[in-house]
Specification:
By secondary structure, the chain is mainly alpha-helical. The protein has 20 helices and no strands.
């Protein structure tokens, strides 16, 4: 039985399955499209919120070094993803990589996990987007009825119609085609990056050198017993450390790491890329380099504009401009954050549907969902199904309950992919690799250690919920996936007919 649970799917067979007409996705993406997708999903609320939180609570002006450290940790995982995505250019990201290296059961586990994480991530971002839009509406004098707005802390039962509507609109865009999605993403990312560049350029003229002294604070600049803990950080990570000094930089890095999450979603579009062997590494690594540079520059500017001890933990960039007598920029930044979250939501939804599609094409989920649209060549069935489910989830579920379940899946995927690189190097040394992760196994091992260390710092409640979802996944696999697997049927001489 163990041999069947850990049977691997050959890379050649995975690529061959993508050529079946009824299951073939349209190849329309370039390296630029992939880079835009990466930047679009990485730059979200992290750059607008976490900068002030970690500067005030942990690293002071040295927050820039924390972003560098977090960027290095992500780069370790990105190098592993780049090798896999260029070697196995098939939809599904970590799921597909695991199937080729670790076996069917590990692949199912990571695929099942990613479906949940991308779904909840999409819902969280949609609810956050709704909050920004409602704030802008309130500033304009338009008040959303309580029953149709965000329910965070509300006393009435309601449905967040804005969050649900956003998910449904993005679902329609993804059904129509990847190229349309890429064009819309390009426009929105251009707006978002423009906002970030305005913050950097305009803020550079407001920097005061005294605010960088000390650059690495040795102690928290408040009276004993005072709390600077951010409710957001407590919610997402289960703890809100307040140590300063050199260790404060590494503590801050463990927090701002989550501002980088999303570059791995680029790998889910490998099958829809014109030249994945060349363009996937460029898209993954390029987007990470761009975002790391912007994060570092923003943190340098904002801690130079205002003393780190006075930064806001909720809206540090906007409030820093208010504190320096430039309130107009605050509204501009809020607008940029609201617009930017649309791409984060869409690309997370894109990643989830591609993982679901790949699992159904392999027979581990009903193959009804593996057929592409005859005209648009997109996986329309899982896109519509998951879009509707997530819209309902975002409409009815409060943000705190959603956010508590997000994050652990991405780190788990990082671990699996890094281990998979080492195993596939041993089992298939003959496999053509257009991009090779350097210093194997050192880089993958370092990636595993960094991800595991961050996972350990997640709250116990997250681990419990993660365990429950995994238990449900095992049940589905043994009741359905294991007996309907196309790989198992091929080994038995039976090919499962198309749905």
């Amino acid at each position: 039985m163990s041999s069947t649970l850990f049977r691997t799917k050959k890379v050649e067979q995975s690529i061959l399955d993508t050529e079946e007409p009824e299951h073939a996705l349209k190849k329309s993406l370039s390296a630029l499209d992939l880079t835009v997708f990466g930047v679009g999903v990485i730059i979200g609320t992290g750059i607008f919120v976490l900068t002030g939180t970690v500067a005030k609570n942990n690293a002071g002006p040295a927050t820039a070094l924390a972003f560098v450290a977090a960027g290095v940790a992500c780069a370790l995982a990105a190098l592993c993803y780049a090798e896999f995505a260029s070697t196995v250019p098939v939809a599904g990201s970590a799921y597909t990589f695991s199937y080729a290296s670790l076996g069917e059961l590990p692949a199912w586990i990571i695929g099942w996990d990613l479906v949940l994480e991308f779904a909840l991530g999409t819902a969280v971002v949609a609810v956050g987007w709704s909050g920004y839009i409602q704030s802008l509406m309130d500033n304009a004098g338009w008040n959303m009825p309580a029953a149709l707005g965000s329910r965070e802390g509300a006393d009435v039962f309601g449905f967040d119609i804005l969050a649900a509507a956003l998910v449904l609109v993005l679902t329609c865009i993804l059904v129509v085609g990847m190229k349309l999605s890429a064009r819309i993403t390009s426009v929105v990312v251009a707006i978002k990056v423009t906002v970030v560049l305005v913050v950097i350029i305009a803020g550079a003229f407001l920097i005061k050198g005294d605010n960088y002294d000390p650059f690495i604070p040795k102690e928290q600049p408040v009276e004993a017993g005072a709390s600077l803990d951010s409710p957001l950080i407590q919610l997402m990570f289960g703890w809100a450390p307040s140590n300063f000094g050199v260790m404060g930089i590494f503590t801050a890095a463990s927090v701002v790491f989550f501002a980088f999450i999303g570059f791995d979603v680029v790998a889910t579009a490998a099958e829809e890329t014109k030249n994945p062997q060349r363009d996937m590494p460029r898209g993954i690594l390029g987007s990470l380099v761009i975002c790391t540079t912007l994060y570092v520059l923003v943190s340098i500017v904002v801690t130079g504009m205002q003393n780190y001890s006075e930064l806001s933990v909720d809206a540090p960039l906007a409030d820093a401009f208010k504190a320096t007598g430039h309130p107009w920029y605050a509204g501009f930044i809020s607008f940029g954050a609201a617009v930017g979250l649309t791409t984060v939501c869409m690309i997370l939804l894109l990643g989830q549907t591609r993982v679901f599609f790949a699992m159904s094409r392999d027979g581990l989920l009903p193959r009804f969902f593996s057929h592409v649209h005859p005209r648009f060549k997109t996986p329309h069935r899982p896109t519509i199904l998951l879009g509707v489910i997530i819209a309902v989830l975002a409409g009815f579920t409060p943000l705190t309950e959603l956010a508590a379940l997000v994050n652990i899946g991405t780190l788990f995927a990082f671990v699996v992919v890094a281990i998979g690189v080492i195993i596939l190097r041993k089992s298939r040394p003959d496999l053509p690799r257009s991009f090779r992760t350097p210093w194997v196994p050192v880089i993958p091992i370092l990636s595993v250690c960094a991800s595991l260390w961050l996972m350990i710092n997640l709250p116990a409640e997250t681990w419990v919920r993660f365990g429950i979802w995994m238990a449900a996944g095992f049940l589905v696999y043994f009741l359905y996936g294991r007996t309907h697997s196309r790989l198992a049927l091929r080994e038995a001489g039976e090919e499962q007919p198309s749905a």
